[in-house]
Amino acid sequence: MNESARMIVVLTVIAMVSGGLLAAVYDWTSGVIAENQLKEMESAVFAVLPGAVRIELLDRGPAELVEDDPKASKETKQAANQVFVGYNEQGAPVGYAFVGEGNGYGGIIRIMVGVSEAEGKILNLTVLSHSETPGLGSRIEDAGFRNQFVGKTLSDPIAVGRDINALSGATISSRAVTEAVRRGLEQASAVYERSR
Amino acid sequence: MRGVIKEFFNGLWKENPTFRIQIGLCPVLAVTTSAMNGIGMGLATTFVLTCSNILVSLLRKVIPDKVRIPCYIIVIATFSTIVDLVMNAFTPDLHRVLGIFIPLIVVNCILMGRAEAYASKMPVLHSALDGLGMGLGFTWALTLIGAIRELLGKGSIFDRAVTAEGAATFGMFSLPPGAFITLGVLLALMNMINARLRKAS
Amino acid sequence: MELFLIFIGAVFVNNFVLVRFLGTCPFMGVSKQVETAMGMGAATTFVMVVTAAVTWVLQWFVLEPFGLPFLQTPVFILVIAAMVQLVEMFLHKTIPNLYRALGIYLPLITTNCAVLGFSLIAAQEAYSFVEAVVFGLGAGIGFTLALMLMAGMREELRFADVPEPLMPTGIAFILAGLLSLAFSGFAGLV
What we know:
By secondary structure, chain A is α+β, with helices and mostly antiparallel strands. Chain B is mainly alpha-helical. Helices cover 71% and strands 2% of the residues of chain B. Chain B is built from nine helices and two strands.
């Protein structure tokens, strides 16, 4: 076999074996990864919907959620359209929760927002994950910043500079969270209304 | 056989990739905010390094010289991605903290360096031990730096608080400048230790 | 406006070398003289900009549609290796002096964590094509800036009386730490 042909063959074989191996490992791990994400979401939902003891995923069946590409949250700039409904012990809906995503400074910021059933007011907000600068953008986790969103409804502007104060020195982080909340609220409330 | 064992210990001190050869420094500075992160990153890198050294050594007579670099890249990138996927599934918290530095293992100069300089020329056992030694040398360097930065920056070691609650800490050590300075001072200390050892012998 | 923020962010606030810790090896290796640093920085920036374009196309037209996100790392790094080869051949023909001055550090651009690092970040952040290219440009320029500042300092170091154990690299790292401290002043700029 002449030299060029041998180069191509060896490269191709190695590439194909690697590709195959990676595909296999990916298959094996993607189930576990999706499960982890589901568990993480569930505990966040319980945190933002006080009084809820049972959650249901709206708009998509549970099977669909697990088959979702675990890297899907990386690619969207818009809020992931997953709405969770929380039911209290009496079986009545407490409200719904949604995941919002925004482009922060160091990466995507993911938040979980809980909205009340009765008046569509935001009950609570937790930061699921972020890569913001420690000490600056990471202060989006502070209760002081997050509490600004409690009580807001669709009729509020929910915008930095209007009804939300940005963290000083962390404009991008603050804006990312605010927009994630607003866009997510618009989409999620629409989904929730449709389902009633 | 003795020669082989010596190879292993080589990577731990005499040719420690971090303190002596000074390659593969990006993760050393970036992930050493705590001792635990240091160990995690170190072990992940050790795994990739050992596996890729073994595979490169196994294939050393098969890979044509002209395409050896792309071949090494594919091998290293494959193991690097495997570690990324497995850590995402089974150690998600560590995976999140280490972030992009896990896939960046592939461009850690240590790996390409050892593949090119060693594994492509030596038999499998030697290459495996070399990878293991270099990797563990890297790991203890990372852990040491991580421990120092964690202690000074957060007042804890391995996530267990050492200083009193609310005591002042040198927050700077958890941030980028602290990383550079810690490494610089440690390098100076290592030099001093080596100079003493040489005088003694 | 967004583009400007991305650019400023990459050059100053989240400088790739001094804040993100990407590109430390060449930062330490090539920063002994200002001219070499400039050449290295320019070559790296060029590779980054081209890589930004190519990896963007591959990510959104091949990897994602065909459901192959796990091939991202191998594909990106192979693209980078190819780009560096091209730049090497180009410099060898057009600016042979620079080619010789950079020596072994030119092929080492492939293992520069900043190049692979920024392309992974751009994919993660789902930047548009233009945003990705601007990000690459900013990353390269920030890298060059850090490199040149460091080279300037190390040139001065030749006249300083540095204690023995700190030579040759211990003092370089401490200098880098001070430089990083200075750059942390940019935090909160945007």
